[in-house]
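Q: Hi! First time doing this. I have a protein sequence and I read that you can turn it into a structure. Is that right? Here it is:
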Amino acid sequence: MLIDTHCHLDAAEFDADRDAVFSAAKLGAGVTALVVPAVERANFGAVASVCRTYPGCVAAYGIHPLYVGRARPEDLDVLRETLRREAAVAVGEIGLDRHVEPRDDAAQDFYFVEQLRIARAFDLPVLLHVRRAIDPILKHLRRERVRGGIAHAFNGSRQQADEFIKLGFKLGFGGAMTFPGSKRIRTLATTLPLDAIVLETDAPDIPPAWQLGARNTPAELLPIAQTLAQLRGMPLAEVARITSANACAVLSLSG
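A: Yes, that's right. Below is the predicted 3D structure, encoded as structure tokens:
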């Protein structure tokens, strides 16, 4: 059993062959569950539709930091209504991004904090976008305590990883870990407690080394898991079992 804790299966890149992509992941690669996070109000419906259509897909709803420029405060009310109406395992994808320019840090902070409060009100974990923003995210998490979650595409330091773990978070590893040059990420993947790690693809984004320049798909989770097993010198089956159990624990999924 493998669980993809971050896969945008609703994305337009999959419109032409979504059925085949899902089948390749589930039947070909043994991916039994996929977490499909929203990025803005406009795709809440698409995420819900995908999760109703494809068995094993579960939803998260939230406003991504790169989409706050077209968000409105009333979108937070829609998020609350969606969480009441639709089954959701998390609030996400939310967080901060201090990489892409131009950006509005104040708007990102506002929507992040408000969504942390929503997650706390609904007693849900969060799926965090943390690119070049780990320290400010940790600052907000200490002030607005939530029920843990996942730091998606983690690429921080060991000290930062330990701080997330203390706050009840798992750390997401995916395509970036497969590049030999990603020395810090590979060291973390090798040395962190395995019970702190979950696997992800972020499909159609962050392709692994062998898919560089191509569309990523959830079927790549199997060779990503094999990479982690090789780095840690462990059997693939054991890595799959433990990382899946980690995902089930943090997202309250049934195993």
